[in-house]
C-alpha cells in the first residue's frame, strides 16, 4: 500500500492491543477536531507519522508516531497558560513530560518562539518545534493528553 493511500488507522494497526486502543482514540480525536491528517514514513527512524493539522488557524496540533515496538504523541501545546489550571491537575507524569521538553533557543529565523508558560510557580519557554512528547503512560494519562489537545485546539 502506498503512503498516499494509507489512513491513520492503517499506520496504527502495527500496535498491539492496549496501545492500538489508545492510539485509535487519538485518531478519533483528530477527526472530531476536524484536523487534516498527513501520513509519512520516517525512514531514518523507521517510524510512521500521522500529523494532525488544524485548518483555521493553520497549524499542527499533534502527531502520532509509531513502529512495531513503541508509539508516542507529539503535542503542540503552545497555549498552556490558557488552560494551566487543568495542567496543574494532571499527573506528575504529564507535568514531567511538559517540564522536560526542550527549551526554546530560537533555533532558526523562521522560529516563532517557544511556548511560554508558568507551572508550579516556575517560568518556562519550551521549543514548540520539538513539542511535548508523551509515551508509555497509563490510560488516565492518555485521557489527560487528549484533553490537553482538545483545549489547545480552541486557541
Helix and strand sequence: HHEEEEHHEEEH
Broad shape? globular
Mean pLDDT across residues:
92
Q: Helices and strands: which structural class?
A: alpha+beta
- Rg: 15 Å
Largest sheet: 5 strands, antiparallel
Count of extended strands: 7
Regions with pLDDT < 50 over 5+ consecutive residues? none
Number of helices: 5
Arrangement of strands in the largest sheet: 1-2-3-4-7
Overview of this protein structure:
There is one protein chain. The chain has helices at 8-12, 17-32, 84-89, 92-99, 139-153; strands spanning 36-42, 47-55, 58-66, 71-75, 115-119, 122-126, 132-134. By secondary structure, it is α+β, with helices and mostly antiparallel strands. A five-stranded antiparallel sheet has the order 1-2-3-4-7. Helix 2 runs parallel beside helix 5 (139-153). The longest helix is centred in the N-terminal third of the chain and has 16 residues, at 17-32. It is globular and about 45 Å long. The N and C termini lie far apart (36 Å).
Amino acid at each position: 500500500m502506498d503512503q498516499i493511500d494509507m489512513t491513520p488507522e492503517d499506520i496504527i494497526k502495527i500496535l498491539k492491543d492496549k496501545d492500538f486502543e489508545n492510539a485509535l482514540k487519538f485518531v478519533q480525536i483528530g477527526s472530531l477536531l476536524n484536523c487534516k491528517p498527513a501520513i509519512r514514513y520516517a525512514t531514518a527512524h523507521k517510524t510512521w507519522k500521522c500529523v494532525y493539522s488544524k485548518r483555521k488557524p493553520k497549524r499542527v496540533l499533534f502527531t502520532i508516531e509509531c513502529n512495531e515496538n513503541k508509539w508516542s504523541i507529539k503535542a503542540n501545546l503552545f497555549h498552556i497558560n490558557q488552560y494551566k489550571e487543568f495542567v496543574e491537575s494532571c499527573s506528575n507524569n504529564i507535568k514531567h513530560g511538559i517540564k522536560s521538553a526542550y527549551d526554546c533557543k530560537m533555533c532558526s529565523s523562521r522560529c516563532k518562539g517557544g511556548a511560554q508558560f508558568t507551572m508550579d510557580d516556575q517560568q518556562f519557554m519550551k521549543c514548540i518545534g520539538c513539542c511535548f512528547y508523551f509515551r508509555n503512560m497509563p490510560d488516565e494519562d492518555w485521557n489527560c493528553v487528549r484533553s490537553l489537545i482538545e483545549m489547545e485546539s480552541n486557541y
